[in-house]
## 1
Amino acid sequence: MQKRYMFTPGPTMVPAEVLLAEAAPMIHHRTPQFSRILREVTDGMKELFGTEQEVFIIAGSGTAAMEAAIANTCSPGEKAICVAGGKFGERWAEICDAYGCEVNVIEPEWGRSFSVEQAEAALSESPQARVLCITHSETSTGALTDVEGIATLTRETGTLLVVDSITGVGVHPVRMDQWGVDVLVSGSQKGCMIPPGLAFIAVSPRTWDVIEGCTSPRYYLDLRAMRKNLQGKTTTPFTASVSLVRALHKALEMMREEGHENVFARHARLAEATRAAMRALGLKLVPENPVNGVTAVWAPEGIDTGEMTKIMRDDYGVTIAGGQGHLKGKIFRIGHMGYVSEEDLLVAISAVERALRELGYEFEFGSGLAAAQRALFGEA
Amino acid sequence: MQKRYMFTPGPTMVPAEVLLAEAAPMIHHRTPQFSRILREVTDGMKELFGTEQEVFIIAGSGTAAMEAAIANTCSPGEKAICVAGGKFGERWAEICDAYGCEVNVIEPEWGRSFSVEQAEAALSESPQARVLCITHSETSTGALTDVEGIATLTRETGTLLVVDSITGVGVHPVRMDQWGVDVLVSGSQKGCMIPPGLAFIAVSPRTWDVIEGCTSPRYYLDLRAMRKNLQGKTTTPFTASVSLVRALHKALEMMREEGHENVFARHARLAEATRAAMRALGLKLVPENPVNGVTAVWAPEGIDTGEMTKIMRDDYGVTIAGGQGHLKGKIFRIGHMGYVSEEDLLVAISAVERALRELGYEFEFGSGLAAAQRALFGEA
């Protein structure tokens, strides 16, 4: 028997209760029954986004919501500031470029967080920028961005703050309205504990004026049509991904039962324990200011993380992620977001230890697990 | 007890086997395990499309694939001929318009099929058209288009034939390569028997030259990225909708077991029986040349189909569809595509009879069922 565990930074493990909700007999999407579910799910996402605005649910992956953010706000030739301190930050620049924006790409060293001071400099350098695109939780490096701090700057300007919180929502507290974020996007297969296939987006009141005037082509991702359909008839402009919406309905119910503050505290505890374990193994974290959904770690000298993750998956049934882009082979990433318990985490750390041992890295075997145990029990 | 039946032209009923495949524990999308599934599913869709080209699987609804068709082929200012003989044909015109095309909209009366002769006239009127967009099976009216015939014209010209076969694939035989279709799109919640949330698109070899030169912005729907990822690494550029792809894997297996020719023959039989039943009830069909996935019927004078479908759903647990656009209230549509047996069909016809009876329409009660019974038994 080889039981399988998934500690990837998305897709994440899905509770059996949610899988069974997804497997319920099909219903039609233009019915009072589905509209009721859609409204409850939308309201649940509003809580996680920290907004009174509508959260629109798109059938698509997180990138679809990122593209919706740009296609609805940036007209060709407009200026965009994109912070590319990782693979997902780079995606903002790629999308803005595809839409004909004049892109100012800021490239913090991967693992470094874009700071409020850097944001201030970027905004004064490009005061006409239509958008400043940042990544709340950069999944490729595990670096956290101070969205709240940066929003204090943008809300005083005409530049919209566009935030990818795909691995932030449901993991970290998000206060879109209170912070002053203009566009926030997220995805389903992360903190929300459901399979991939849904993307989420909400926009601030002032963003609607920009959307109305935006000349970029869009149809499937047109936020005006989404608003009209949701507010008018509690429906979606195009066929909703019915089974995934029902999975989300169940997942949000489970998160509400646990209590959102407890969900965030659990993620903080899992992250702290993972970091403690990695330090005990003599390893160094990639980010200076880490997120709580994934821990990115430098591999020991001479160890290829492609090989390491393959051993973990094939020999121990434990899937984690390697590095992306120029960090491929050099780092490994342990996802601990969504449906991950303290007990699960021990499985991940155990497998990391075993693979490192097999690959010849010298360390006190079991010391990572012991450190996690202490941290989780509050004795760190 | 009220058992529920769905005879809508999408979403359609999903076999329990498929629902359970969808509910399997999550796996990561960048693994050999998922790549194997993706390859098998892609190959299965190629059979249904009748093409040797790749069929790209998009996380999104069918409209996403329609937009992909236009965003990748039409540059702003180029000419597009769009046949809008129903709600979904109109969608082609809306998308082409959103992308800045100069759109020549041809509007056959709803229910009439766009003919080869009309196509010939349209192509000679707009010889520079980049695309001719048609609807294989127009779900809003139940009208079938002679795609094969029209393709004999376009393949001799520089105009690409772009076909929405969202309710055609898996219902009617489709021979994309043999006919000479350039772009074919479909969706998951129709003949393919899975929930909504996947869209499909394939393009002919000559279309790639147009795609490379197309200047319209696209990122999530960029076919170049889809091809590169599928052919290079048997993967998708963005996170695949893992659970729906696995559902499709199971559904395609079931369709292969039944035999594709048998699947098409079953749809033809269901459609013929439904038409016979409606004629026996003294009702008139909307299309002159009907499709096999849905039967669109004019309501008797004085009967509102909104009221009729509500009675069917609430009192008898049977969901069918009313009319769309200017046919709202005037027609009803019985979907019989995907996971519909001969026995199921009797349930639909029974509920139509009951609702019409309640609404005061005079006819011989049971005559629709009897006609269907005869047609299904080959005694029509």
Note: Chain A touches chain B through 55 residues (CB under 8 Å).
## 2
Amino acid sequence: MNILDLLLGKPLAASDERAQQLGIAAGIPIFGLDALSSAAYGPEAALTLLIPLGAASVAYIIPISSSIVVLLAIVFFSYRQTIAAYPGGGGSYTVASENLGTFAGLLAAAALMIDYILTVAVGISAGVGALVSALPRLLPHTLFFCLIILALITFINLRGMRQAGIIFMFPTYLFIGSLLAALGVGVFKSVMAGGHPVPVVAPPAPGSAIAAVSVWLLMKSFSSGCTAMTGVEAVSNGVRAFREPVVDTARRVLTIIIGLLMVMLAGIAYLVRAYHIVATDPGKDGYQSVLSMIVAAVAGRGVFYYVTIGSVLLVLALSANTAFADFPRLCRAIALNGYLPDSFSLRGRRLVYSRGIYVLAILAGSLLILFRGVTDRLIPLYAVGAFLAFTLSQAGMVAHWKKNKGPGWGRSMFINGLGAFATGVTVIVVLVAKFVEGAWITALLIPALLFLMMRVKRYFVRVEAELFSQEALDTTKCKPPVVVFPVQTWGKLTQRALQFALTISSDVHGVHVCREEQKEQLKDEWKRLVEEPAQRAGLPVPKYVELESPYRLVITPIVDYVLKIAAEHPSCQIVLVVPELIEQHWYHYFLQSNRAELLKGLMLLRGNDNIVIANLPWYLKRTEI
Amino acid sequence: MNILDLLLGKPLAASDERAQQLGIAAGIPIFGLDALSSAAYGPEAALTLLIPLGAASVAYIIPISSSIVVLLAIVFFSYRQTIAAYPGGGGSYTVASENLGTFAGLLAAAALMIDYILTVAVGISAGVGALVSALPRLLPHTLFFCLIILALITFINLRGMRQAGIIFMFPTYLFIGSLLAALGVGVFKSVMAGGHPVPVVAPPAPGSAIAAVSVWLLMKSFSSGCTAMTGVEAVSNGVRAFREPVVDTARRVLTIIIGLLMVMLAGIAYLVRAYHIVATDPGKDGYQSVLSMIVAAVAGRGVFYYVTIGSVLLVLALSANTAFADFPRLCRAIALNGYLPDSFSLRGRRLVYSRGIYVLAILAGSLLILFRGVTDRLIPLYAVGAFLAFTLSQAGMVAHWKKNKGPGWGRSMFINGLGAFATGVTVIVVLVAKFVEGAWITALLIPALLFLMMRVKRYFVRVEAELFSQEALDTTKCKPPVVVFPVQTWGKLTQRALQFALTISSDVHGVHVCREEQKEQLKDEWKRLVEEPAQRAGLPVPKYVELESPYRLVITPIVDYVLKIAAEHPSCQIVLVVPELIEQHWYHYFLQSNRAELLKGLMLLRGNDNIVIANLPWYLKRTEI
């Protein structure tokens, strides 16, 4: 058992695939963490923008949250249909490119990719941010904790999907259970008290109003609240990861995730209003999150409070995992169409698309390092991507129904059309409301990524065109090659190179770059030890070539000679034989001149299609240092 | 003219060597900077240890400096003889190893190498230290300046010896001229005033005596003063670098350097006594160097003062250059005997031993970085190495005279014997006096380096023994090889690999690692496009081999197959043909899977002497991205 097996688990054969698939219980943490955890920051983000209204802000949370819940319901019914129509995985990319064309598909893909990268960075940094605001001593180590969590999530995902599901089950269900309990108790108390419950721990008094309500303010609040909906599309993209019957399992998981999210959003909005909770400014002293105020008002600051808030932190930090489940699948789908390198479509030892996992980890890690683990400023960037993908996906479904016209296609088309319309309007609202704060960056990045993918495709198309052929083997071109090899001294290495050269050609050139001392000796040895035996054996006689090197370069003259021979024999292959000592210990390479490596490198750099480089290794024995 | 030509100068042919050789005027800066600059810190180091004696310290500088000057004279006569006896370059290493055996030679070499590395670090850091003590604003940039100067010296040396001599001429002669002028004027004034001159600027009053004089204290003071003698051996090592007649030129350069150094040391000692100059503590406020006090006492703080002190700073910082002239020559001599890698003996484009220059720059740079540019603590380390090398070199000369017995060999042997004795005693004194302060580190490093060089030699001896052969070409072993090559799809790349394979062998295996989709198609294409045409042309039919890969690995199955074939054909060479796309732009490599590179690497790692790896490049055309 080697070290990789121990770290990453034994390699899985393709036939092990069934066992790696997800049931409902494991599917919820894998594909739902992102969506569910956004209950912790969506309402908060909406309320924060209402702070200037003072106590009056409480009145507006119900309409804003209701709009979001309605939007969520529309999106839910849209995606239910998508899952059924695309049981092979119906992410925005697939749906949009199949129905609206490549360009729309890549646009959705670019939007989603950027969204996922941001999700990872923002999720981890939000979790760590909450942790360090609870334990300010840890503040200087923010970036360190962020990267540790990133490494952990990456690592767990490299071990495979199923294990990720099992590991993340505990914090996810703890979060769902404790938050639902807090909300349930709160609503019960409130109803019992006729809508005016007495808080166990009173929330801070609201500041005085410094602004009147305006449509613009409500629009911005709604846009911020919409971040609660990111991550909803993950299930439809990952249908293939579920257990048979895939469509049913995926639909049930989607229903549970969105149902829970809706209940949470509604419960939070109701209690904010009932307990008159106003957001506090996250940049200032006395900041407390909305969820923290609600739980304290409902249950006081006991064990229950700490368990609930602790599970929120955990779930926030782990919400990055949804992106890790989905980003590699998205990249695979794109790679299969040639818009990303082929390696994104290969599954690693644990049946995951390792390349996508690495790329996501590297990009998100770079963001975290660039922003030193504080990525609040990135939040405005990321609802645009998600909603753009929603819109394109729903619009694609509309085209799908129009084209295929299955039973009840009219109703289906209407539902998806409503979804496309609602999310499309939301994209515009979010883009306008958040443009100055950062949405413009997304508006630049998405086309840039789109352009890059188109260029990648163009490259692959050209390479394929260059290499494509259905011509049969052309046997007329099989002329014997000319063999050139460097000779430093006579010895076993040269003996072997020469023997090999003679097996493949009758035109062999031993090339010696002169250093005065050895000149005559080698010439003499060549005559005695090579030419004469070859003549006696009736073999073609290998040529001995001396190259002058006034500037003491050893490698360039050999490369020049090979190029000269290649020019003289345009219809032949030239084989440059490079004997190379293979050391037993890596540190022995410091002792060698690495001339073989340099010769191979320079020859490749300056060579052409007719020049083959044959590496003749000599494995050194019993050479201890 | 390319960028390297512009930076480093045009390459020089070996026949340009004459023009690169040094006359007396250029030889003094090259080989004398180290020795001459030590006049600036040797007496200072001796006096610093006498601070506890207060005003009484002045009395002891004359005997201490006299001992050093006498020692210098002995060493001078010894090295004059060495130069004549070894016109090919008679460094301690050469002399000791030829006359006292390999072990003594390597011991001297190790001592000198460590000495040179320390010289570079300490010289540069002393110069920069003096600069920042004059301009305290620069203090935070100490390391930066050190590395800049190191880079500059390295760069100048890579451009060749002669240019280094020309560039360093100005500061060297400015230093010699201004310091000699200051000392001459001072001595003249003092003699005129009957030994009691009136200082223009009075030196600080001495502190009160806090210790009585002791033999131990004088021994330590003498040991510190001996650092004034480091760098003296450089000329004898570099005889080959001088113009014809080399022995005369080298001897004259040595005479001038040591003569100047003796005059400076004597003058400084005389003026210290005449002006009652007591060293100040370098760690405390009000610190002023001894040279600064002397020049101020003699000439006041005018333009002349600043020119002199400025030239001292410059010469200190550039004293590292002597090590750069000598270290690479020393490494070359060792490499020619096989105790260091061969590459140390190759001359670069400008006829200098570039490898030695790089290694010295890297090691000295590491020391500077490790000590953040403040290497005062390294000073105690470095007289040991120099004097050990002196001793071994003189002792070697004694053995030389005894063996060769030329005319006047008795007198010569006596002079070298006296030198060996005097420097040998000094080694012991320095080692004892400085042991606790750091000489123990040298006492550990020298044997460590010695051991390493012995191991390097052992390695080369073993490799040579393994590869040595005077057997004639064995033509019976020239059996045709078996060729294996990977096939992914049918296309021009495969066509070419197949054509090449058929030119060198009749036993050709096209190996396909299965990914389900292509399996049947490729099998069919092979039959139609390869087997049938080959049969029709009467050529041997290439085999098509399918490899299963349950773990989706692409490379390992191919390597395993090659190893299997190699085991089945123990008397044949196996050629693994690896087609590889060569991109036009480096960034295109991100798009490729790098499978060719990985395949070559893994095959080399797991292969054996019978497996040849033939790299078949395909240069992509017109593939812009």
Note: Chain A has a mean pLDDT of 84.
